[in-house]
């Protein structure tokens, strides 16, 4: 995997190594973090960390998706061993798992989650619908990991999409916007709401897309990992890697947003989450093989979850870049794409970012600051 490497601080490494030595659940048996550095200093066990003093909030609820593009959350929020949980000390952590971003925005607006990992377009929509009052983007998490994959028996090339049935995870989610924008640029007419037109865009939950493909109900899908790799393992072919549409191949696929109210009232809790994100990204990038195992074990531990086979896990994981930079410049492009697709009116994104906490954490780690592309909170 080619990924930006983040340096994990010595205290965090000690904490992670000590926690990984504790045989919690099945993680010790799978060797999660077995190669993590241990400099020999004493460090509290994960149970001691969990019993530490709470921060300004007694509890926090964090949302994410059970996708490889959200591996930072899946691994970092793992019971006992997750660095995000450890950074939160005695603050109780609740989690909610979503299929796609619009549902996560609804939960954030309803106060059901305080912080969530999410794609760019739902964050943009949430910002627009609230008049810039509901959320702030506080950190990056991942780039890449989305593809248009098709049944080669029905779609042989990008010029062969007329009449095809292409799935996306949800109306208005990041891959839905990417597909609609691409089709519009290629001259295909599709109603953005109904998905009807020269190409049929079908909104199907990620977990249900493989069955729809196997049953012949769709000809392909524009989806994140591991759904894309799953379809390829079933005979699909990758027609377009979304990274090919972006300068340098980088584009935000997952970032971290916080409720504005929660961020204002509990900045220390948000800081702890961001520190956990930075630490988890560093560990994933420095230990890719162990990270795959950790992700798979955590995925299987989720309700209704199961481990991914190697033929899905390996290519899917290698398709995603885990990084702290939210790639703010690509967010504006994503907003323009949503406007072009007919799913968003022109929106002022000024203030959608507050990267002050992230840049403080990065400075502590000796890492360079990241840029908000002029879309940050005004001082």
Written account of the structure:
This protein is an alpha/beta fold and 379 residues long. The protein is 38% helix and 16% strand. The chain has 15 helices and eleven strands. It is globular and about 60 Å long. The model is unreliable at 1-50 (pLDDT under 50).
Structural class: alpha/beta
Molecular shape: globular
Head-to-tail CA distance between termini: 37 Å
State mean pLDDT (0 to 100 scale): 86
* Number of β-strand runs: 11
User: Into which percentage range does the β-strand content fall?
Assistant: 15-25%
- Counting DSSP H or I runs of 4 or more residues, the number of helices is 15
Name the helicity range.
25-40%
Biggest sheet overview: 6 strands, mixed
Order of helices and strands: HHEHHEHEHEEEHEHEHEEHHHHEHH
Going across the major beta sheet, what is the strand order?
2-1-3-10-4-11
Low-confidence stretches: 1-50
The radius of gyration computed from the alpha-carbon positions, rounded to a whole number of angstroms, is 20 Å
